[in-house]
């Protein structure tokens, strides 16, 4: 979906010439690369927002009906006035553990059987594209921006020492 361009690598601080003009030029280059990464970061955030917003109207189309809910109490429990008790040591398996044990798919849409609403499929594909494509790219860009911020601070510190 979104392509992340990696910034040019900068030479280590020990290899950068120590004249004021070259330090100023290298600081300008660092800031220019940071602004380029910031622009990409903002575009990816817009992509993420649109992916999430595209999936939310699909959820609103999925109005639950009365048959979608199972009662928490059985009629016998209501007649006797007792509530079901849960054993404190009884742990319930997670969805992934249950899927592995039963040999079924991890895809939650398959839990609904064959007749999965199209709105639910659209929501799932929007969220998948956001999680698989956009979020890792955002994380990568944030990491690169952090590294450049550190380099900018170091360059500014060297410039202050020269003045």
From TrEMBL:
<feature type="compositionally biased region" description="Basic and acidic residues">
    <location>
        <begin position="84"/>
        <end position="100"/>
    </location>
</feature>
<dbReference type="GO" id="GO:1990871">
    <property type="term" value="C:Vma12-Vma22 assembly complex"/>
</dbReference>
<dbReference type="InterPro" id="IPR040357">
    <property type="entry name" value="Vma22/CCDC115"/>
</dbReference>
<dbReference type="GO" id="GO:0070072">
    <property type="term" value="P:vacuolar proton-transporting V-type ATPase complex assembly"/>
</dbReference>
<dbReference type="GO" id="GO:0051082">
    <property type="term" value="F:unfolded protein binding"/>
</dbReference>
<protein>
    <recommendedName>
        <fullName>Vacuolar ATPase assembly protein VMA22</fullName>
    </recommendedName>
</protein>
<dbReference type="Pfam" id="PF21730">
    <property type="entry name" value="Vma22_CCDC115"/>
</dbReference>
<feature type="region of interest" description="Disordered">
    <location>
        <begin position="1"/>
        <end position="22"/>
    </location>
</feature>
<feature type="region of interest" description="Disordered">
    <location>
        <begin position="77"/>
        <end position="101"/>
    </location>
</feature>
